[in-house]
Write a structure and sequence with these properties.
The chain is of the alpha+beta class. Helix content is about 20%, strand content about 45%. The strands form four sheets. Strands 2, 4, 5, 7, 9 and 10 form a six-stranded mixed sheet that branches. A five-stranded mixed sheet has the order 12-18-17-14-15, with no helix packed on it. A four-stranded antiparallel sheet has the order 1-3-8-6, with no helix packed on it.
Length: about 325
Amino acid sequence: MKRRIIALAAFVLSAGLFLPGAASALTFSPPTFDVSAKPGQILSQTLKLRNESTLPVTFRASTASFAGKPGDETSGVPDFYPSNEARDGHGLGAWISFTTAEFTLLPGERAELPFTITVPKEAGPGSYFGAVILGTKAGETSENVGITGTAAALVLLKVEGEIVEALKVDDFSAPSLSTSLPVRFEALITNNGTVHERPYGEVIVRNVFGQEVAVLAMNRAEYKSVLPSMSRRYSTAWQRRALEKDASILTRQWRNFAFGFYTAEMRLRYGEDGRILSSMTRFWVIPWLTLLIFIGGGAALIWSLRRLLAWYQDRIIRRHEKGI
């Protein structure tokens, strides 16, 4: 029964109700624990809670393990599974325990949920993944307490030892031709190592003369992980001004004007020794409507000036002829 309850909670969470940091009546921090330990070590951690509802609510904490979803390169939503299930050898849920797993919070009340992570002595080096599941009591059963899965705090643990850190850039690209900014850059990173990594850095944009025109942060604020044997997409965008979605082509080209051939170099750092991932892409920005207006306006101005000059010359000639 317990296995079915946890599996149901995991299904509900992974189906779209997974909200790190907040539940319907509960907020908590931090949403993610990223820790390291030696084999056999016991870690003590604390989750801070607050009841945001106007009624007393009884919560129950449980554990689960998680893995990345095969083929998911963008969302990063974990694939939860029961703590006692041996799936890929990276499960952490069974190592997490609570002094008190059930608690009641009054409206607006704050509390702390301590838990421990007991790393087995035989644990091999690498990353392990688990979660503290927070749910409200859904009622009593003859075998266990029913739990409604609402939110989870993720636990990512690196067990020290001879780990392998190996990220690879599978792709770094931008649209080859854009008519205006923003230009979006995407990088596909694969983790061939044994530990999770959080690559971060910047994309440097240069014009045809090699001059630096923009430095764009990539995964600095989000700080998203890529798990071992998984791939993940990271992105950033170059733009001058944020515009409404329904802005006209001319408005987009005029207010986010760029023109010409550009190169973009991605430089991401990762790992304990600050390894560098780098890649380069090239692209064009041709704001055709703005250019047509400029060209048309320039042609009209030249035509007008030529007509004005012809009129003026004709007038001078006429006055001179009358004077003769």
